[in-house]
């Protein structure tokens, strides 16, 4: 029972076994004492609370905030001891803040519950008791056989058993999981693939052993043991066997699968991202200011307590005749009395800590984040994508960025690959108008001019080729050349994971190389744009990948269909940086085709034109093209048997499977024969150069982190403006040891000191970076800090995150921003202070795991220079203003104690204490923090240098904080002493001859304060809308109307009403009105004088831009008026001319 209660409260998740053994259809062994493992049900729970734990869990989370916990303590103190103010003064604001936050969070969670119930109640088909039964998704158990039809979503993580196809394959799309829209092929093991009916599946006796649930979408290790005729058959299970919850079945009528992970243990559920725990610089400043004000509060309470006892040292003040102590008070402990008095003063001054600050900041961030999504300038029409905000906690951090770390492919570039050039057996070709053009001399062409290479189509023998083709060759060497090109493009057509959506392929590939390829008939889908571009290029040149049927890959060559049996796929991984396929050719040969980065292919090659190809690859890279090398290897029967055995052992291993597979892959992918290299172009996105230049003008350093080789990366950097021609480019490449790396870094540091150039750029590769980060972090950082642009190439995903981490923890602690579009960018996006995902073609993982998502890199400039600038200025003013108005509020309370013998008498009525922050002064600052535009957005975007004025948290510096605090104290002194000296001793203020009393005096101070702090907000506002006018002047009007009603009526539910008729009498006094106007003017006059003086003699860049904008507005208005005036004059002249003409005609 206790465990169930803990589980319901969310503190004790169900126990997870170390291993997972699943009996298909839950047919457990009948012998022995077998205890079935317990697995969770298939409920998806995205909600945070339940009916049972909402109140305790929500309260616990809210009271973790310092301000809420502080006010709770104050409220409890007011309940326990005799304090000068009612517990309501602290309890009501606290209750309001807690209730508003709880309602907001409860409503959001209620919506999640509704969504969960829809998902969990969806109907599904399950095989039970030899038949197909309908049940709800939440009732699926681990081990159940589930039927899924075409276009349906998989309700749990299933291991594929069979499909409507004989080979047991099916196609799925995982767009909802990772954004990849390509069709992925999954296959069943042969023994279960033939079980295509419910009756046949009911006879299946099998056990699945697999790893524990983990979040990695692309990793799954297991094995299936099938019992057939008393014989056990073991088959490996990998990612190709697992159908993930959330994916959708495509191009397949139906499948059957066994549930292995259910509910919150599915990979989709494990990938649910909790709210970002990143904290902005503003929030950290808020906490610092809060501590300072807490120290001020405690100091005021201690001073008041000490002065009270100092004053009461005289007997006449300790026990005056009108306030005799009781016997109990005389005998009570002095220490306890001192503590009680200290706590009472603490309660009296506690409103110096603004409890409503947090709820106002939350509202400002939440509501303000909608402006990013609504901004049409951040909308991309082609992809129909608008900017997204995944967390609103970091809005103001967009205005503080000092470093931008960006991926290259898909972020700076379009990620739309076009085949441009290739190198085949040492000869370089480029595609021109759908034909391959050789740049070198052909065997019978000594002139060295460009010669055209056409397709192998319609060629059945060499003589036909020699006679009828424009590929000029001689009979004796023609066969060899044809074989080289044939093998190269076959490698391109077979070594990939491309899928085809159409089967209308009869007329494809039968024409010459320049193009009988019709994309309308044959459409390729690929997870990598590179693969798609290469397969399409091979099809244009006559070797067409037609599709695959189970283990058979079909390729059209020479106008005829060839079938290759796919034996093994050696998947791509970032460590190997290559992928391979092992196929059996129609002739029976076993061939390995390998494709990958030149750094991973060339070292493994023992044949082919290695040196020439390497030169060509470098030339391609200098043009900014993306390169891949192609190689092959032919196996003997004995070699293939050994490879097949090793692969089976590694793939069926449950322990260290990945390490064993890596070892086998390395054993296979060696002794290669190099075929050549491909080069594809990835175009730059629109306005990338302008955006990078604007970032540099704003004082932001841009680092490019990419996996490309350094020649390609440097070429793209130069073309996009990241590096420019006048920049001194430093290189840290191919370092082999720590000592070598340290020496090189020392040389670079000396060059930077000695070279008196304005800007330096640094290029560093992944291996050198690893050495630099291992032992020489400080030296590496010194070099980087003096470089205005840094390019890191050949980077692994974790290295990207390490680089950002290194910058974050450097002594300056700069604010970092990472932007990328692929799954390999997620680690750096999550590491940076602000993570931005590009909604590109490499999936949506980056966008899903980011704080903000945009469609194009160019939108980054407006996001930072406009939205970031506005958000920062707004929230910085909001925080400072809140502390200012609370100093104004409580300081008169402290000063008043000097005039009432520190008797803890309150200056304000309890209702005013309660409503000051909630009603009277809350709306103007909230609306300001949402709508303020202190300068035109176009000016901010066109003048990136203005971004420098707000960097390094300048608006929340200690100097600015002290100015606002000093301003608050000075205004408070004017409120209190102005009221005291102007009317405090005047006996004839009221019409009936009565003097001002305590409550009248306090109300006068409060009235001046409400008007002044509201008018101060008006002075800070530059961008006035009707909403600003409504809440600013409406707040003052509301205060007067409320006070008239509150003090003008005897309310029956109030036990005492000190304010009865006080406000009405105050307003009936002319002296009071004079005092209010004089004090408000005095407070604001000093502020206005300071503002005018600063703008005239020490203007900031922003203030200069404001004045230029104002002049522009005035001149525009003047020109408009002049043109209008000239138009009126012209109209008068024209009218007079017409009238004169009419009169002439009349005469």
UniProtKB/TrEMBL annotation:
Domain P-type ATPase N-terminal: start-end pairs: 35-90
Cofactor(s) this protein requires: Mg(2+)
Annotated TM spans: 66-81, 288-311, 342-361, 863-884, 961-983, 995-1018, 1030-1054, 1060-1086
Cellular compartments per GO CC: early endosome; endoplasmic reticulum; Golgi apparatus; plasma membrane; recycling endosome membrane
Function: Catalytic component of a P4-ATPase flippase complex which catalyzes the hydrolysis of ATP coupled to the transport of aminophospholipids, phosphatidylserines (PS) and phosphatidylethanolamines (PE), from the outer to the inner leaflet of intracellular membranes. May contribute to the maintenance of membrane lipid asymmetry in endosome compartment.
Subunit: Component of a P4-ATPase flippase complex which consists of a catalytic alpha subunit ATP11B and an accessory beta subunit TMEM30A.
Protein name stated in the entry: Phospholipid-transporting ATPase
Organism: Bos indicus x Bos taurus (Hybrid cattle)
Record gene name: ATP11B
């Amino acid at each position: 029972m206790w465990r169930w209660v803990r589980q319901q409260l969310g503190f004790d998740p169900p126990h997870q076994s170390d291993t997972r053994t699943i009996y298909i259809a839950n047919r457990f062994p009948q012998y022995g004492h077998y205890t079935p493992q317990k697995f969770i049900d298939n409920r998806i729970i995205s909600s945070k609370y339940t009916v049972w734990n909402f109140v305790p869990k929500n309260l616990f989370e809210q009271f973790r905030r310092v301000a809420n916990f502080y006010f709770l303590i104050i409220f409890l103190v007011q309940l326990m001891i005799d304090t000068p103010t009612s517990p309501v003064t602290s309890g009501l604001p606290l209750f309001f803040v807690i209730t508003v936050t709880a309602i907001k969070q409860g409503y959001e969670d209620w919506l999640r519950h509704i969504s969960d119930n829809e998902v969990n109640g969806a109907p599904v088909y399950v095989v039970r008791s030899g038949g197909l039964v309908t049940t709800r998704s939440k009732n699926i158990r681990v081990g159940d056989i589930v039927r899924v039809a075409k276009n349906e979503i998989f309700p749990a993580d299933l291991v594929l058993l069979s499909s409507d196809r004989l080979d047991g394959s099916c196609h799925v799309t995982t767009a909802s999981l990772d954004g990849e829209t390509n069709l992925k092929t999954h296959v069943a093991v042969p023994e279960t693939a033939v079980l295509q009916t419910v009756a046949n599946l009911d006879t299946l006796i099998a056990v699945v052993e697999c790893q524990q649930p983990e979040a990695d979408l692309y990793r799954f290790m297991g094995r299936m043991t099938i019992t057939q005729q008393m014989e056990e058959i073991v088959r490996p299970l990998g990612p190709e066997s697992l159908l993930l919850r959330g994916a959708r079945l495509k191009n397949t009528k139906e499948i059957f699968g066994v549930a292995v992970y259910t509910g919150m243990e599915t990979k989709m559920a494990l990938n649910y991202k909790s709210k970002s725990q990143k904290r902005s610089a503003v929030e950290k400043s808020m906490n610092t200011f809060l501590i300072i004000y807490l120290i001020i509060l405690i100091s005021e309470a201690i001073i008041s307590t000490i002065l009270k006892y100092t004053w009461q040292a005289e007997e006449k003040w300790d026990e005056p005749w009108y306030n005799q102590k009781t016997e109990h008070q005389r005998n009570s402990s002095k220490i306890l009395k001192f503590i009680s008095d200290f706590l009472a003063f603490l309660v009296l001054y506690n409103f110096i800590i603004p409890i409503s600050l947090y709820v106002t900041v939350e509202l400002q961030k939440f509501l303000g984040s909608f402006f990013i999504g609504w901004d049409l300038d951040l909308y991309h029409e082609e992809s129909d994508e608008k900017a997204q905000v995944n967390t609103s906690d970091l809005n103001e951090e967009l205005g503080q960025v000092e470093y931008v770390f960006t991926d290259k492919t898909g972020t700076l570039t379009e990620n739309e690959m076009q085949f441009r050039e290739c190198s085949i057996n040492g000869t370089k070709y480029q595609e021109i108008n759908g034909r391959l053009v050789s740049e070198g001399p052909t065997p019978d062409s000594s002139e060295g001019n460009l010669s055209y290479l056409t397709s192998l189509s319609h060629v059945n023998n060499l003589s036909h080729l020699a006679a009828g083709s424009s590929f000029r060759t001689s009979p004796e060497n023609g066969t060899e050349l044809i074989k080289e090109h044939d093998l190269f493009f076959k490698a391109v057509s077979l070594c990939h994971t491309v899928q085809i959506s159409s089967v209308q392929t009869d007329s494809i590939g039968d024409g010459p190389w320049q193009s009988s390829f019709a994309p309308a008939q044959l459409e390729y889908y690929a997870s990598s744009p590179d693969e798609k571009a290469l397969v399409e290029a091979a099809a244009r040149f006559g070797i067409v990948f037609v599709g695959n049927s189970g283990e058979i890959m079909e390729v059209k060559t020479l106008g005829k269909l060839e079938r290759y049996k796919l034996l093994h796929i050696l998947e791509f991984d970032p460590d190997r940086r290559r992928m391979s396929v092992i196929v059996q050719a129609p002739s029976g040969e076993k061939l390995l085709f390998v494709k990958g980065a030149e750094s991973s292919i060339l070292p493994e090659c023992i044949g082919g034109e290695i040196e020439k190809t390497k030169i060509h690859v470098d030339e391609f890279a200098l043009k900014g093209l993306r390169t891949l090398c192609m190689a092959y290897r032919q196996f003997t029967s004995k070699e293939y048997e050994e490879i097949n055995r090793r692969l089976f052992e590694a793939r069926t291993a449950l322990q260290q499977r990945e390490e064993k597979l890596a070892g086998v892959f390395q054993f296979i992918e060696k002794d290669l024969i190099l075929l050549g290299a491909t080069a594809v172009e990835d175009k730059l996105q629109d306005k990338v150069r302008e955006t990078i230049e604007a970032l540099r003008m704003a004082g932001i350093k841009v680092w490019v982190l990419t996996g490309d080789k350094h020649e390609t990366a440097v070429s793209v950097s130069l073309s996009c403006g990241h590096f420019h021609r006048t920049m001194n480019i430093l290189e840290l490449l191919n370092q082999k040891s720590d000592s070598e790396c340290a020496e090189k870094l020392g040389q670079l540091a000396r060059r930077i000191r000695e070279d008196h150039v304005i800007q330096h750029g640094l290029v560093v590769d992944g291996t050198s970076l690893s050495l630099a980060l291992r032992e020489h972090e400080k030296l590496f950082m010194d070099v980087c800090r003096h470089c205005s642009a840094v390019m890191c190439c050949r980077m692994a995903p974790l290295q990207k995150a390490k680089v950002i981490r290194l910058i974050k923890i450097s002594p300056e602690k700069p604010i970092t921003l990472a932007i990328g579009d692929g799954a390999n960018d997620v680690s750096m996006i999550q590491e940076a202070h602000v993570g931005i995902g590009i909604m590109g073609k490499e999936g949506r993982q980056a966008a899903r795991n980011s704080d903000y998502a945009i469609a194009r890199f160019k939108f980054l400039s407006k996001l930072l220079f406009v939205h970031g600038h506005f958000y920062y200025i707004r929230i910085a003013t909001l925080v400072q203003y809140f502390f200012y108005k609370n100093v104004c509020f409580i300081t008169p309370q402290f000063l008043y104690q000097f005039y009432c013998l520190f008797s803890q008498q309150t200056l304000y009525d309890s209702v005013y204490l309660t409503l000051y922050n909630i009603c009277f002064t809350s709306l103007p600052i909230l609306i300001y923090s949402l709508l303020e535009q202190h300068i035109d957005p176009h000016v901010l975007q066109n003048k990136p240098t203005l971004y420098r004025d707000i960097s390094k948290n300048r608006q929340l510096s200690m100097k600015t904080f002290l100015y606002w605090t000093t301003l608050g104290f000075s205004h408070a002194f004017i409120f209190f002493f102005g009221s005291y000296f102007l009317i405090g001793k005047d006996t004839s203020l009221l019409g009936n001859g009565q003097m001002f009393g305590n409550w009248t005096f306090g109300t006068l101070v409060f009235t001046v304060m409400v008007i002044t702090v509201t008018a101060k907000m008006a002075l800070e506002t530059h961008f006035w809308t009707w909403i600003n006018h409504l809440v600013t002047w409406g707040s003052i009007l509301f205060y007067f109307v409320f006070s008239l009603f509150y003090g003008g009526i005897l309310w029956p539910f109030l036990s005492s009403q000190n304010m009865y008729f006080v406000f009405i009498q105050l307003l009936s006094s002319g002296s009071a009105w004079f005092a209010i106007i004089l004090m408000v003017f005095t407070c604001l006059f000093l502020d206005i004088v300071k503002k005018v003086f600063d703008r005239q003699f020490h203007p900031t860049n922003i203030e200069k831009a404001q004045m230029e904008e104002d002049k522009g507005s005035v001149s525009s208005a003047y020109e408009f008026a002049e043109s209008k005036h000239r138009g009126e004059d012209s109209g008068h002249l024209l009218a007079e001319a017409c009238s004169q003409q009419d009169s002439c005609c009349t005469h």
